[in-house]
User: Fold these one by one.
Assistant:
Number 1:
Amino acid sequence: MSEAAKFFDGMMGEAFSELHTCMLGRIKSFNGTTMQADVIPLFKRKLADGREEPMPVISQAPVMFLYANGFFVRPPLKPGDLVVVVFAERELDSVVLSGSAQSPSSNRQHGLEDAIVIGGWLPFSGSLPVPDDGDLYIGHKSNGVRVKITQAGEVHIKANKVSLGDFDASEGVSLGDSLKSWLDNHKHYCTGCAGITKPPSTSSPAPSQVVKTV
């Protein structure tokens, strides 16, 4: 290879080394209120002399989440979680500060400073504790809690506690079929009558198929 070719090859390699598109990383810290994260890149940077060094930590990257018309689903990222990071075509500083269209204040393109966390990923050695059955799952891989929405229109909730109305709700809900059986068959001891009363002469209401909380 000629000296000129080596020069241009090295120049292009150096230029492309700072042009970032997509990267895998690990969460260093996460703010679940501002939806920003510091991310440790899982790639190393190769120096001109052939040595490698860790890439710098990506600071205060905005984290993508489901958000529309005031509704949101927030991912509970924690240090150590694996994430996918992409890099904006132009500088993001003015846009993420204002939330509106802005002219970039520099010519920076696809820079480390303009990272966006778009979601998590699993290494090929990992797996989720749910079957690949085509249903929608929301859950946690270690404690077994999950919500399953089936293609048949059913919703199944597996949890140690489900609170309705507020997070600190403590009033329990009775088991409908068990309560109905008790109501239909219970008897009372009474004073001044023939010992024990008979069960009710009419059946109690059947458990509801549709409920609401107020």
Number 2:
Amino acid sequence: MTTITVRRIAHTIVNRLTMRRRPLSAPGVRDGAAYAPWRVFLSHTGDLREQPAERSFAAAAEAAVIRAGHAVSDMAYFAARDVDSAHVCAAMVAAADVYVGIVGRRYGATVPSRPHQSFTELEFATATDLGLPRLVFLIRDDAARQAPDGQSVEHRLRQAAFRDRLCRSALTVCHISSPSDLELALLHTLVELRGESVALAAFMAGAVSLPPWGTVGVGAPLVR
């Protein structure tokens, strides 16, 4: 990610956190919202919770979020209730601080009340409409150990169009080939964003001057 992109995303996170939690104040910036764990919403199709069999993409993403000190939000953990699933999905995205899209080859389940839209498309659209910081990881078409396609031609074309829209958007899309790639890339991004958001929060609170890029953010070694 470029310096401008990381700083822009970090600024968005700080703004959302300060609106949601108590305001920051100098010099007690460490007690403020920038240091609170983020709620990271993981958006993915069901097959990515099972594949690859030895360690799934979803499991790798969860490990990265936890290692970065944040909390995982995922529709897979939502309890059943008598509410429109589209509203539930949108509400969970809205409650998050960061959106992470893990996009493979499968289109996935469609929203019952919106049969021409998948849940992953709905989650991305909701995050976009809400101005949520979006981190998108695209699994390469030639990545090994992906589940066989096994979907209709219509869904295959829809997913191809969705992937193309993501690549053509203003987002910085990260291409990955394995769960290990995903864990490393997501962990590194979250650590960078944490450092930058803390620096921005301190600057906004008047506690410190904003340091130049490259002097904040990176903590523990990014190796497994």
